[in-house]
Prior knowledge:
The complex is a heterodimer.
Chain A: H1 2-39, H2 46-53, H3 55-88, H4 91-106, H5 109-120, H6 125-133, H7 146-170, H8 174-182, H9 187-198, H10 200-215, H11 219-225, H12 232-241, H13 246-270
Helix pairs in contact in A: 1-13, 2-13, 3-4, 3-7, 3-10, 4-7, 5-7, 5-11, 7-10, 7-11, 8-9, 10-13, 12-13
Chain B: H1 8-32, H2 49-56, H3 58-92, H4 97-109, H5 112-127, H6 138-162, H7 166-174, H8 179-190, H9 192-207, H10 211-216, H11 224-233, H12 239-267
Amino acid sequence: MRAYLSDRMGAALLMAPLLLFLVLAYAWPFLGVVKWSFTLPTPGLGQYNALLTDQLVQSVFIRTLRIAAIVTIVSVAAAYAITVVWVRGTPVQRVVAEFCILVPFWISVLTRAFGWVALLSNRGLINTWLQAVGFISEPLALVRNEFGVIVGMTHFLIPFAVFPLASSMRSLDDRVLLAARGLGSSRMRTFWSVFVPMTRSGIIGSALIVFVFSLGFFVTPAILGGGRSVMIAELIYLRIFQSPDWGLGAAISVVLVLFVGALMALLFRYIRPKQLV
Amino acid sequence: MPTYRPGPVSLVLAALVALFLLLPLLAVIPVSLTPSRMLAMPSGELSLRHYRALIEDPRWINSILLSIRIGVVSSAFSTVLALCFGLGVWMFQPRFTAALVGFVLLPMVVPPVVSAITLYFLLTSISGFSSFFGYDTWLGVAMAHAVMTVPFATVLILVSLSQLDRRIDLAARGLGATVWERATRIIMPNIKFGIVTAALLSFVLSWEEIGVTLFITSVNAITLPRLMWMGLRDNIDPAIAALSVILIVITVLVLVARSVVVRLRAAQ
């Protein structure tokens, strides 16, 4: 009994600092934000009502969902293509694929967004080159619009989409593929009717991760959207710092957390977390 | 060893994706060498003036030093907290472990912008009492970064603990070691690689943190990413290209060194 008590004491003493820190520095201020959403500027449900009626807020929500959906489909498809080679390629192919996945993964979001500005802006690499060759006379608008946002976000999210896909491809039994080939199925057919269905859990996991990440994305849309293609996260920023309307910013945050929470619950219900990593 | 290799179609598609992933990183190189004061491709001569600006302009130096200071403090803080928490979980396996770990991981899964507004609320509240530990102070930024990095440190430490053989600890316990001795002389030496990795990752995450930093700083605590952000939003400063090239080169070197070390170890 004494040993049991001292065990509990020891656990409590070791775990307390971190738990206390996060309660004070994260959980408590989050409740403060929730309070803002109900009290600023006037107490009541006014801010949530505004979410349902305000045209601007609604158009931002719809744009965010649309961009997130496009980015999810493109990122997962692109990640799938490179993961196949990373997991199942020859040793040399694997090293190259790993390098192409990990280098962007470790480079900061700002540098990567800036790289796209350098490529896509009016005086950037692509427009300069196309004009020099004579394909176009006026620079193409590739950035400061939704196109630029989608390209930049896809680039950021591909490495994140790779990891769940890689784990589902690694656990796949080769003999099944060889059996399909042995039974006379073509390479294409083996890929589409055996390989892809068997990696379904990885596809769902990676799609949900990318979708959830895209919903709260801030830096890339703010830089590559140039203020014209505002997404939810940037709207929260603008409501806090530019047109001080803390209540609305807080209400949008609360809705975003609830939405993401529901998606995560879905994720854990359909796929065991073990299968994700 | 997979016997089923990707075919030519897969290889071509993967090569296109690889090109897409590397292109923006390569594009910053010519921009960084432009002699122009604005973002442009160099036409004719090349110049290193933007690299020189990084060394000569005190704003860049000050931001780099500030980012290092914040990174070291927040990484030390979050690694120590994560280590204690991990030791508690591993040695005592308390009830509700899953729920407690889930709570600790929240800042990692909640959308960063929500964490940002939460930490903004926290630091502006603290500013009411203290002028050196609230909104727009380096200590405030370090604390906010610790909140954001501690879930990652915790995951790494829990993972390396889960690979540790419990019988070593049981033997120490059977021989009469106290909790303190078990933690410091048995467990920690065995997970030192995990602890170092947690500290390094926390530092890197703090070093490049921008989403939260934007919400909690204005004019005083300008970290390096915050300064880059200012240069990106207004008039694009090619010094950012020079800085990006340096950061990309460092990243590539570290990754290559790491894979060489891994391969040498595997060969032994």
